[in-house]
Amino acid sequence: MESVKKKSIIEAATKSFALFGYKATTMDQVSKIAKVGKGTIYTYFATKEELLKEIINDISIEMNDVASKAIVPGNSFVSNFNAALNGIVEFQEQHELTIKLSQEVKEIGTPVVVDALQSLEDEICHFIEVHIVKAIERGELRQCEPKVTAFLMFKMYINLVNDWKDRHAPLPKQQVASLINQYFIEGLAKQTKS
Among its keywords, does the record have DNA-binding (predicted)? Predict the structure, then answer.
């Protein structure tokens, strides 16, 4: 019974955060949507921030699952990188909460939300880092700093997919993949001796 109530609270908070943002959501709203007393929420979550962290953790697990399912054993690192990040970006674009939280960061800069979205980004970068290490071990990429490389690759991808379209026509996914390969991956490719 307790896990059902906790799940109901998490779902209600997710809905409220997606509709009103973190800052405008109150525990009263969450309790009404969840159909539980406000005290019940505090049984599971000491603060609204703790509740958001739990939701972000759940989203992180879902995103990791989406990215993992996009990876095809035997495909190149570049192909899998693009497939995984395409999946993550599509997930975020369809997930109302991440959209609302991103808007809140841009418009208000709520520190708790900034931290929450940063933790999502850190999870994505860690996912990429793990796959860079595997690609190095397979001899597909030359030695590099996997953590730094993952960060740079993620930022480049996000800038080409999201930020570029704020100023120019959106780039097709294949062109983004080609640009990442041209400007980034070819510099990491294992050097062949001629």
Answer: yes
Q: 5 is in which domain, residue-wise? A: 1-46
- CATH at 31: 1.10.10.60
Whole-model pTM: value is: 0.82
3-state secondary structure the chain: CHHHHHHHHHHHHHHHHHHHHHHHCCHHHHHHHHCCCHHHHHHHCCCHHHHHHHHHHHHHHHHHHHHHHHCCCCCCHHHHHHHHHHHHHHHHHHCHHHHHHHHHHHHCCCHHHHHHHHHHHHHHHHHHHHHHHHHHHCCCECCCCHHHHHHHHHHHHHHHHHHHHHCCCCCCHHHHHHHHHHHHHHHHECCCCC
For residue range 62-92, list pLDDT tens digits in order. Answer: 999 999 999 999 998 888 988 998 888 888 8
Instruction: Quick: pLDDT tens for 45-65.
Output: 999 999 999 999 999 999 999
